[in-house]
Amino acid sequence: MVPLVPLETERLRLEPVSGGHAEALHQAVIDSRPELLQWMPWARSPNLEGGRGAAAESEAAWRDGREFHFVVVERSTDEVLGVAGLNREGESAAELHYWIRSGHTGVGLATEAGRALIKWAPGALGVSRLTLWAGRENHASRRVAEKLGFAHVGPLGWRPEGGLGQFDAESYELDLINT
Length: 179
Ligand SMILES: CC(C)(COP(=O)(O)OP(=O)(O)OC[C@H]1O[C@@H](n2cnc3c(N)ncnc32)[C@H](O)[C@@H]1OP(=O)(O)O)[C@@H](O)C(=O)NCCC(=O)NCCS
Hints:
Elements: E1 7-8, E2 12-16, H1 22-36, H2 48-63, E3 67-74, E4 80-89, E5 93-100, H3 109-125, E6 129-135, H4 139-147, E7 151-155, E8 161-162, E9 165-166, E10 169-175
Parallel strand pairs: 5-6
Antiparallel strand pairs: 1-2, 2-3, 3-4, 4-5, 6-10, 7-10, 8-9
Helix pairs in contact: 1-2
Bound molecules: coenzyme A.
Coenzyme A binds at residues 35-36, 39, 98-100, 105-111, 134, 138-141, 143-144.
């Protein structure tokens, strides 16, 4: 099993999601709902029971080697500021995803968390390539992809479901060997 070890960056601690995070994560989702809703179907009607179920599913997915979700915690305050993670896509690739709590965006935290996962992924998961997709109109997320060094591949071949319906998205990838 991939070790359940927290990662540290200058401002953040990335803690593998556990049931103990469910309440704080639920509050972060409630506080961020207007910003999350367009992109995240689970932001439609968040509730604590659903949050507990999602945390349990994250723990199971980590144990099974499928998904590796980290709670983004501010080191100086211990405040829960979002989630960043990787979903395995076969042996050699994984998909990066992230969200950051409203009121804490625009200061580089998604990029900082993403960088930590990019550094962690090859050794921990044995992957050589990361993928990412972002809503075509999700300019902040697309900018994070660029800042992390992802190359724009083109339109995503399917339309993801957000909280307000499906949306067009763009596909990105990062070669971890030649960068
Ligand atoms: C997208 C998201 C994760 C960004 O988090 P963040 O911590 O603010 O990201 P960073 O501060 O590292 O970088 C954001 C960049 O986007 C830019 N940006 C923000 N809003 C923008 C907009 N409307 N148009 C263009 N650029 C924008 C910021 O200026 C910054 O770029 P810069 O450093 O060059 O100035 C956060 O806004 C979020 O959680 N949104 C809702 C959920 C979501 O969309 N998740 C991604 C799903 S793919």
